[in-house]
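Lab meeting, item 3. Inverse folding demo.
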């Protein structure tokens, strides 16, 4: 995972550059830095990130803290994140835990602490980004990033890939949503979609490439909540 994209969100430039230097020392070369929420959201609209190192306190002039920013960014992409902060008090920890981060580094940090947390987080990414199933007696694996949408078929589901292949698997849509809720949005009782393939929508349909999938009335409110920060 040394070729993965990492984003550091830190309002203190010296600390941000120190983190970038540490990561480069450990051969992580694709590292970007954002000094505030606006810059982080702009970078997210341009690139896919696998890991974010997020400072919780983004400065006195910021309209939100790092935990709130993570909630917004998580609606745009699927990624792992580590909080970096000088605040290790119980209240901060409780709020941070509600977003289930993959790590938590307290300032002042050491090189080894940063490296260990990053390695653990990226190991988790590689394990959670794929779905394994049995097809005609043979174990197969699909990267979640290749799945455009999934449709219910009784007790089974059809998985549709970006290359137009499809697979029938014994897993319900509810099971997919429970395990992979950060990847998919439910738009109909019989359909969930990968939010990264959304190209547009109306009050009745969601467009994925050349597909128009129906948007169920009871799922519309949740769908709109998920896509309000996405750019098409």
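The presenter then showed the designed sequence:
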């Amino acid at each position: 995972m040394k070729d993965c994209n990492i984003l550091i969100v830190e309002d203190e430039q010296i600390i941000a550059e120190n983190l970038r230097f540490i990561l480069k020392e450990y051969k992580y070369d694709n590292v970007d830095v954002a000094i505030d929420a606006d810059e982080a959201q702009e970078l997210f609209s341009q690139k896919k990130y696998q890991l974010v190192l997020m400072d919780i306190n983004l400065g006195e002039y910021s309209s939100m803290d790092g935990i709130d920013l993570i909630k917004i960014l998580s609606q745009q992409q699927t990624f792992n994140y580590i909080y970096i902060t000088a605040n290790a008090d119980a209240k901060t920890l409780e709020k941070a835990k509600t977003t289930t981060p993959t790590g938590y580094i307290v300032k002042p940090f050491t090189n080894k602490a940063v490296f260990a947390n990053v390695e653990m987080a990226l190991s988790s990414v590689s394990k959670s980004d794929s779905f394994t199933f049995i097809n005609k007696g043979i174990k197969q694996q699909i990267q979640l990033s290749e799945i455009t949408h999934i449709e219910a078929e009784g007790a089974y589901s059809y998985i549709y890939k970006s290359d137009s292949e499809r697979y029938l698997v014994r897993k319900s849509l509810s099971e997919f949503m429970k395990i992979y809720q950060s990847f998919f949005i439910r738009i109909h009782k019989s359909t969930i979609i990968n939010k990264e393939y959304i190209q547009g929508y109306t009050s009745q349909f969601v467009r994925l490439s050349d597909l128009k999938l129906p948007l169920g009335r009871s799922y519309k409110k949740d769908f709109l909540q998920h896509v309000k920060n996405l750019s098409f």
